[in-house]
# Entry
Amino acid sequence: MSFEIQRGLFGHDVTDHYAILGIPLGTDPKTVRKRFLQIAPRLHPDTCSAANAQGKAYAQQLMSRLVNPAYATLSNDAKRADYEAVLRTLHSRLPQQANKVAIQGALARELSQAANVQGAYLKALQTLTASQYDDLEQVLNRIAEISELNLVYLLKTTSGSASPARPAAAPPPPPPAQRPASTPTSGGETTGAREGAASNTQFVLRALRRAEELTAKGQFAMAMQELKDALKIDGNNADCHAWLGKVYLAQKQGTLAKVHLTRALAIDPRNAIALAAKQELDRATGGQTTGQATGQTAKTTKPQPKTIGGGKDKPGGGLFGGLFGRKK
# Structure
């Protein structure tokens, strides 16, 4: 039996691992594992709902060809980071393809018209995943419906990361000064606002964790992207600015490092990450930015003749020198 799915993200040449496991985009690894352990018994030959050998064999195929690869990708830091980079790339292309997207599922069509995208997305997803693997004959159809939800969600969001923690864009978006104003409930605060604030916090925390792990592996470009995405959600997060400064410092981009470390300490003067990185920056530059330190060196060494092709590169190397100029 064919396992090919053409709807949702699958129709854009992306295997939707989140849809296969029936979890929201951007789900943390702990929840990924929890969901995997819920699915596994439903597809095991001894405990699945199949009544005959053919059905049990099909259940095993679902596990080996879909569920196991999805879990292997989303539970591994490096594979997950690469996969989410693919989703971000897809998301950047979706606005130009919006008129060509065909949606079959009723819940996905409802989501495309929803004002509170975040709440509607999670509610529709819960409806579809509750019995996703109960009827083995309907598993592929359920995955396709969930993937359509994911596709619509990405179309409706405003940023390039595949995470439901991102605020939804209700076109046309109101000016920033008007965004807090929404129709309140009797308690004075909209349910969507409370859900959005909580999910935004979760996204920032996940981004910080991923950035720290990527930095430890020397994957600075990906760490920077995680932190920049997080700052789009919370521009005044001291930890995000501190880590971004630290990443710039690791790439010998002292000027940019100083900008973010200064910002982090302005928000939280006791931020341990920023304080430690600032001390390292001061030691490296003598209390100046990289550009200033380089300029001072140029003044003191002015009498030396300038050679063509034989001189050493200046420290730092700029953005492209930092990202691509070093040996891996």
Notes: The domain at 204-300+317-322 is CATH 1.25.40.10 (Serine Threonine Protein Phosphatase 5, Tetratricopeptide repeat). The CA atoms of residues 294 and 300 lie 10 Å apart. The two ends are 44 Å apart (CA to CA).
